[in-house]
Specification:
The protein is α+β, with helices and mostly antiparallel strands and 447 residues long. The protein has four domains: 86 residues; 109 residues, 2-Layer Sandwich (Beta-Lactamase), CATH 3.30.450; 70 residues; 166 residues, Heat Shock Protein 90, CATH 3.30.565. Helices cover 51% and strands 19% of the residues. Strands 2-1-6-5-4-3 form a six-stranded antiparallel beta sheet, sandwiched between helices. Strand 12 and strand 13 form a beta hairpin. Helix 8 crosses helix 12 and helix 10 packs antiparallel against helix 12. It is elongated, with a radius of gyration of 36 Å.
Amino acid sequence: MNNIFSSFWKTKGGVGTKMSVFVFLFFLFAIIVGVVHVLLETQPLLLFLVWALIFFSVTLVVVLGSGSAKRSTNDSSDQGKLSAIIENLKDGLVIYSPQFKVMEFNPAAEEIFSISRNDIIGKTIEPKLSQIEKFKSLTQVIFPSLASSIAQLSETNAWPQITEIFIDDQNKKFYTVLNRIIDKNGEISCFLKLIKDETREQAILQSKNEFINTAAHQLRTPLTALNWALENILKFSEDSSPEIHKIALEAFGVSERTLKITNDLLDVAKIEEGKFGYSFKSVDIIVFIKGVIDAVLPFARQHSSQITFIHKNINELYITIDPDRLGLALFNLIDNAVKYNTEQGLVSVVLEKNENVIKISVQDSGVGIPENEREKIFKKFYRATNAAQIEPNGNGLGLFITQNIIKRHGGDVGFDSRVGRGTTFWFTLPIKNISVDDDSSIFKNIS
């Protein structure tokens, strides 16, 4: 009975509203019964109390019964919707107690792990189950520390916890999202783990990378030979045949762009495979930056742009870098600043030194980057719409490569931009020596 009253007071409508309805109905019926019996010269007070009590009881039962039935129907409907959602999830869902007892195992999880729901519901997952082939993948997903390798993609103590899990001997890769359900007492009632099987996508990505790698290698050799031939034609035709020289110059430009795209594709493939080798050495950063600027100057002259180098109070500073890789990153930034600058625009390369890091900025007075496109600017193959209008032949790989190189040097990279006013790309580098594994890869976080 206490549960009935408790349920009633939780239904829609305030307590005062419900009490008013009962009081009104009670006294209305009581007055009617009393008047009738007074007119019939019976015992009005006794009959008044009897009839009032009967009416009150009947009304309470009817109201509570209808409300309870409605709530029961609603609860059943909501439960059905929730079950349908779980059943139709594309990703696997495992719900388990704090004691690792499986409470829910949806069809997608059955398919991912090749385990029947009936075989796992009610079963307690323990690390020793990883020794049984049937439960190996599931156990390693529930206990990621047992997996061949893992990558924590969320902060250590943050919820939900997002993890990338590799199971090498089964060639499987999973993304998992783990969250906890807290009850009204603040205790954990259960855990929900969502599992996305990336095995097939990883295989497709691997095949794509292998294809690009093979195709790019096959293209680079003939393109290099073609460039060499066109350079010779340019050299011999400069004075003897202006028409041939002009045609050869255009062909050489197209060939060089194609060769750059090929080299960029090869670099991206190496980055994603963790094979973009690095060779670190101590270098005077002033001399290094001047060398990169000198390499860009011929291109800048073609665009009537000037490049200045500002390094106040810094005349010599040695830091540990890979000059070839970092040179490519800085070259990309200066090249973009020239390419997307205004006519006869100024490009400034600025070196600043703080306590533990240096900051290199490349400023231009060009078109800027639209506000709604800034989050995508470092993604593979992405180009801002206004940049694509100015230079249709870009491939959208330069900034992706640049960001990878800077990250591998232990630095950070970013930009500030105003449309129509220009953009400043900057990156930081630690002054102290850094240690980076040659075969590590960070493409997952920034692709």
